[in-house]
Amino acid sequence: MAFLVIGLNHKTAPVEVRECFSLTREVVRDALLHLDNYEVLTEAVILSTCNRCELYAVADDVEEGLGEMKEFLFDLTGADETTEEYLFSYAQEDAATHLFRVAASLDSLVIGEGQILSQVKAAYTLAKEVGATSTELNLLFHHAIALGKRVRTETKIAFQSVSVSYAAVELAKTKLGELTGKCALLFGAGKMARLTAEHLKSHSIEKIFVANRSFDTATALANEIGGEAINLKDALAVAKNADIIVTSTGAPHYIIRPWETRKLMAKRRNRPLFIIDIAVPRDVDPEVAEIQGVTLYNIDALESVVDDHIKDRENEAAVAEKMVAEEVDYIVKRLRYLTFRPLMAELAARAETIREREVRRALSKFSDMSESDLKRLNQMTRMIVRKLLRLPMMELNASAGTVRQDFYINAMRSLFRLENIGENTVERDNYRYANE
Predict the structure, then answer these.
(1) pLDDT tens, position by position, 368-390
(2) Which residues have a catalytic role annotated?
(3) Same domain, 172 and 155
(4) Of 271, 278, 277, 267, nearest to 294 (Cα)?
(5) Label partner for 262 (CA 20 to 30 A): which of 36, 89, 227, 334?
(6) Per-residue pLDDT for 426 more than 60?
(7) If we measure between CA atoms, which residue out of 130, 201, 196 comes closest to residue 168?
(8) Does the pLDDT of residue 133 top 90, yes or no?
(9) Are both 56 and 8 inside the same structural domain?
(10) How far apart are CA 173 and CA 167, in angstroms?
(11) Residues 270 and 356 grouped into a single domain
(12) Lowest mean pLDDT across 71-85, 255-269, 282-296, 403-417
């Protein structure tokens, strides 16, 4: 069995490609329910966020598994094969390292950000709920989530982090100068919008308007931040007085289009308008950037702001990387053991079947054996079996993941006839120990 990951993220694909792979919870759930349509894949988890779409899976074979995962991903997203150049893939230890780095927020656009850990947990929980995970992914994701929590509590990486919303406001400040006395319009009222509003207020911005599909939700956020809620349909009318627009909705289509924006800029007499689109899929049609007086940035533009803070987090990130390496080393050993567990279980079952048969034969000749003597006999024979199997089991387990692995698998199956496991089969085999 092989642990694999395939996908794309902010490092491998621009936002216009990433938005093609943006998936809702309902789409992910439906896809995982149809995992059986893919013969090689036995387990799967899909992680879809604004900066990544990644498919984690367990497959019977690395090469066939990656091919089928690519097919699964294209079926799921509807993306065409021209996007294949943006995909990355990892197998086995490298795949585990990637998952652990993602959960530890070391692979994020903003190193140390806290949202990714909850997103990893939610992705795993959904997959588990629909029965798409089993032993290997359960083990891997339990450890990845636990590691993510450790990194946040045992290092200061979270205290040195820069959120996407913070970076957006810093970008606005860099381009516009001081924000004191400025007016901002937020599209969206979720967590990202709330954080953006808090950062804007910290820079003494004068007025914040909140537009959202749900007016009640917009009102709730506006009341929290001392802003003003507006209906989504009225947003661009209010934008006549805005200096900054920040969008972070979950809309599947553009909410700011060229035609409406041209009309807006005519009303503003082309007074400059600064727009930051931190949504994926994007909220603002890219053609808006061509309109005179409009400056448009998307989420990828925030990397320059984030890079300015990298040195503040490098030491803590180095500590976290060591924690990841230690956890990967442990999990690789655990997975090697899991690879051999079925074979070891068969070997133990074969030995136990023989032990029980021989005890029954012995009992037929000792009709007056007491309950306590029978208990001693069973205990003694179990210890004999356990001690006889101990060294072969240790050798088998030690060979997992090495060049000796296939040799020991074949040898064990041949020597102990493990392909014919079962009590009735054992009794027909006339199986005997070598020294009998």
Answers:
(1) 788 888 888 888 998 898 888 88
(2) 50
(3) no
(4) 271
(5) 227
(6) no
(7) 196
(8) yes
(9) yes
(10) 10
(11) no
(12) 403-417
